[in-house]
Amino acid sequence: MRSLPISVSPTSDTAAEPTGPPAYTGLSHCRAVFVPGTARGGRVHFWAPDEEAPLPGAGAALDLVLPGPDGEPGIGGVRTLALPVPEALAVLSRAHADPEAHPAVRFWGAAALYALTLIARGRLLPGLGEDGADEWRCAPLEPDENRRLLELAAAAPPLAHNLPVPGTEGRRIAEPGALVRAFLDAVADALPRTAAAEVAAGGPALAGTGTEPRPELATWTEELAVLHGGALRLSLRIEVPGLTEAPLSVGRDSGSGAPFRAVLQVHGAEDPALVVDAALLWAPDSGAEAALGPRARTDTLLALRRAVRHWPPLDPLLSSAVPGAVELADEEVAELLGPGAELLAEAGVEVHWPKQLARGLSARAVVSGEEGAGSSGLLNPEALLSFRWQFALGEERLTAAQLDQLAEAARPLVRLGERWVLVDPARAAALRERPGGTLRGVEALGAALTGTARIGGQQVEVAASGRLARLRDLLTAPEDAHTLPQPAALQAQLRDYQTRGLAWLARLTGNGLGCCLADDMGLGKTLTLIALHLHRQQDPATAGPTLVVCPASLLGNWQREIERFAPGTPVRRHHGPARQLDGLAPGEVVLTTYGTMRLDAERLRGAPWALLVADEAQHLKNPYSATARALRTVEAPARVALTGTPVENNLTELWAILDWTTPGLLGRLGDFRARYADPVERGTDPAAADRLARLVRPFLLRRRKSDPGIAPELPAKTETDHAVPLTAEQAALYEAVVREMLDEIATADGMGRRGLIVRLLTALKQICNHPAQYLKEEGPALAGRSGKLALLDELLDTMLAEDTGVLVFTQYVRMARLLEARLAERGIRSQFLHGGTPVAEREAMVDRFQDGTVPVFLLSLRAAGTGLNLTRASHVVHYDRWWNPAVEAQATDRAYRIGQTRPVQVHRLIAEGTVEDRIDALLRGKQALAEAVLGGGEAALTELTDAELAALVSLQGGTDG
After folding, report:
1. For residue range 273-286, what is the model confidence (pLDDT) as tens digits?
2. Is the peptide bond before 140 cis (omega within 30 degrees of 0)?
3. CB–CB of 200/207 below 8 Å?
């Protein structure tokens, strides 16, 4: 913006502007206006509403005088306090929220905050001002940021851009939009120029406060402006001379016609709706330069140079005296219909075609789904469904003959009947050669859900019709679109979200499709599945026995829940030496473990299962494991996976679960990783996450305790991290192990190095727990040697005084044994559940804890992190950290679940200054990604460099001396 011819002179009682940053008080009640200038010359002027009143605060009192209508000086003035922008910001930023402040000051306060917001987003671009001095600009702005600027300017009160002149109605300093834009630039120029900036920059350019010209920066700042698109935006308007609204007279046949012209257009920076032909900027008296600003020509050439780098056919515009228009050959027009337009879009240049030209040739595969209907549903997943190609031009379908005509044309402009169309002949020829084919039913369903499929090695659009379309609509309907009464035989009242879950399960399994119920732990997945079993018995088409495969620790829980909520339903455990399947009743529920299922897969395959359920389905997350392979051989028309953590470490686990429930839905594992998992986990293709969500969402129901309608049914949960100092013994052991093993790791490589790193991390975690665990000591000499144990003693004193139950989780059996010995030494009753505890004893332990006989329950995280209902506990202690937050949350959910009536407090013990401390910070970030991509825990840390590993494990304070 050009500087205004405004006179500013000291009054008789002062001779200079303020030289320091004094505390200005009371200025928010004055009036204010920003007056721009050349580099760093802009000032915010404050003046009192009463011209006789003294100006508050310290500083220079100046006479601000506007020019007259014809440019003559001194038509009047007003006494002001002029502040440089950095000093004015301190006043304006506070005045914005002051309801007593003058509207003009509040307005400039809002402009100051917006400027700071833009700068925080990185909207800083160096350049040269009109006087050649270096300056920072608030650029480049996105369209929504420009819109906000215009909205802000439109809200400016009159006194924010007008100066009251004695004897007149006042004079406008400048148009509000231009004035706000200049103010943003002034703020952007002021903030980088701190006292240290010149030292950091190695010179005064763009850092110092001087205003001398710097021609040596011209080329560099011009290149930056080109890189960022300059201050203006360009577009191309494609013209075909002779084209009219009537049926076209451009040519007498499809192979003749006038040349194409690309006309360069310029869009305003402040007002994107302002569009002019670039040629008008070079036309005298056109008014285009006045509308777009004094730098419009320069910025247009800069933006054009960037566009030429992306698409060279525009180069003649640069060599022309006036960059108005360029003629395009047929092959250039064809290119502009595809990759050329994409390249120009990268340069910020849009292409606008004549409205009367039909274009947008496309093909899509239409799958009807009329074939392969099953008796129990709308789709047989294994059936082959044929598809046909459908071609369209815009929204209008084309016949095969019309496509042939387009493919055989010699030019992009083709007459088709009574209209003219614009197509790339090469693309039309490629589409014509597409043969028909078939898709498996489950592949067709996936294509119907996502709208795309991979056919012939290419990703193509797919449209569904007939039964397939009806099935898609059924699956994508909102969760509450279908209601279902709960079975009469169910002796429980389902909550609303459980009723919706039952209807969802019945809808999918009733149509021969599998699914995954992935509710948070404690929300009643077992009860919902019992209701589903009872519901399916009401229809002869879906009735039959149900097989539930679960961890051994859950057999008793499943049996008790069935006997409680579905009395009269036959239930048996297929587990132990006397197991057998003789006399299987039609509506019976058979419970077995993953281990037994592996041994008896052949016997289980021979039973007529109507429903197959995999509880804690994370056991299937490795598709190559013996468990996963064995379970895939057990046949059932409907499969349901239950898990609170469908993704623990990576998206391959999600594939493994859903490929079991609905085989083929996500394709082969290698294709799934290439198409979805890798782009999502690496963040390289945001659209891949959306495609995957559309494909997976109908088959995976995920509810959390925090969801509306669920959270009010649960008590509060409080989580506390306790930073615990190491004892002197722990610190000495810790530092010794770090020194010795880092030296050993430095000389190792490959798998040997990875193994050493895992050993190091395990040793340090054990030392953080207790020296006796690391040293493999036995006996009662435990007190006073571990910060964690000392804190646990203190916590238990408080917890047990509340007459409540306490769960203490650790991932180490040895540590749990040490805790058991310590509690016995203190006379506190406890019990320890681990992987070797027999099933019958586990159930007895749960009963003893739930009835209050044993107040402290020690649990191995791996053996007891899932499946148990321990709602008597209102305190959960994680003695050491599992490096997967989802697994840790599952353990917490043993207490924090449906049936809990008291608030639950979660305590995490973290050794201060150790690797646990650093990992805790990583866990917080990892928790935020737990629903998308989780890292590989210790395996990921084995890839750290020596320096990174040392920084991770080195002890930093945190001892208790």
Report:
1. 788 898 898 888 88
2. yes
3. yes
CB 247 within 8 A of CB 419: yes
Q: Which residues contact 592 (CB under 8 A, 6 or more apart)?
A: 547, 548, 549, 550, 573, 574, 575, 579, 600, 604
Taken in order 625, 631, 632, 638, the sign of the CA dihedral is negative
- Which residues does residue 139 pair with via DSSP β-bridges, in sequence order? none
How far apart, in whole angstroms, are the C-alpha atoms of residue 81 and residue 622?
73
**Helix count (H) and strand count (E) of the chain?**
36, 36
Whole-number Å distance between alpha carbons of 177 and 741: 65
Helix axes 496-510, 466-476, angle to 10 degrees: 160
Contacts of 128 (CB under 8 A, 6+ apart): 134, 135, 214, 217, 218, 221
Long-range contacts of 704-713 (CB under 8 A, 24+ apart): 704/519, 704/520, 705/520, 705/522, 705/523, 705/896, 707/497, 709/496, 709/497, 710/497, 710/523, 713/495, 713/898
Task: Annotate 95-150 with DSSP letters as a single string.
Answer: HTT-TTS-HHHHHHHHHHHHHHHHHHTT--EEEE-TTS-EEEE--PPPHHHHHHHH
468: its two tokens: 């397939």
Pairing state between β 361-367 and 358-359: unpaired
> What residues form DSSP beta bridges with 397?
392
SS3 assignment, position 718 = strand
Mean pLDDT by 10-residue block, N- to C-terminus, for the chain (961 residues)?
Answer: 42 38 64 83 80 47 48 54 87 81 89 92 82 83 78 86 62 78 90 82 81 76 58 82 47 46 84 82 82 79 85 90 87 80 83 73 61 45 59 63 66 66 65 62 70 63 69 72 86 90 92 87 86 95 94 79 92 90 92 93 92 90 90 93 78 88 83 80 76 82 78 73 85 93 90 90 94 86 88 85 88 93 93 88 90 93 75 90 77 79 85 85 52 44 81 72 49
SS3 388: strand
Q: Of the candidates 311, 238, 237, which has an alpha carbon nearest to the alpha carbon of residue 277?
A: 237
Residue whose C-alpha is closest to residue 83's, from 60, 109, 101: 60
Question: What gap in Å lies between CA 570 and CA 90, rounded to an integer?
Answer: 77
Query: 3-class DSSP state for residue 80?
Result: strand
134 burial (CB, 10 Å; 0-12 / 13-18 / 19+) is buried
Burial (CB < 10 A; 0-12, 13-18, 19+), residue 654, is: buried
Residue type, 718: T
Q: Phi and psi at residue 172, in whole multiples of 5°?
A: -75, 130
Report residue 421 as tokens.
Answer: 């169309």
> How large is the greatest C-alpha to C-alpha distance in the chain, in angstroms?
112
CA 893 to chain centre: 26
- Quick one: tokens of 706? 């925090």
36 exposure class (CB count in 10 Å sphere: 0-12, 13-18, 19+)? buried
- Whether the Cβ atoms of residue 306 and residue 227 lie closer than 8 Å to each other: yes
* Contact in structure between 263 and 320 (CB atoms under 8 Å): no
- Measure the CA–CA gap between 517 and 642, rounded to whole angstroms: 5
Q: What is the DSSP letter of 350?
A: E
Determine phi and psi for 574, rounding to 5 degrees: -95, 80
* 672 burial via Cβ count (<10 Å: 0-12, 13-18, 19+): buried
| Spatial separation of the C-alpha atoms in residues 856 and 800, rounded to whole Å | 9
- Collect contacts of 246-253 with beta carbons under 8 A, ≥24 apart: 247/418, 247/419, 248/415, 248/419, 248/420, 250/413, 250/420, 251/413, 251/415, 253/415
Q: What is the DSSP string of 662-684?
A: STTTT--HHHHIIIIIHHHHHTS
Q: Which amino acid is at 751?
A: M
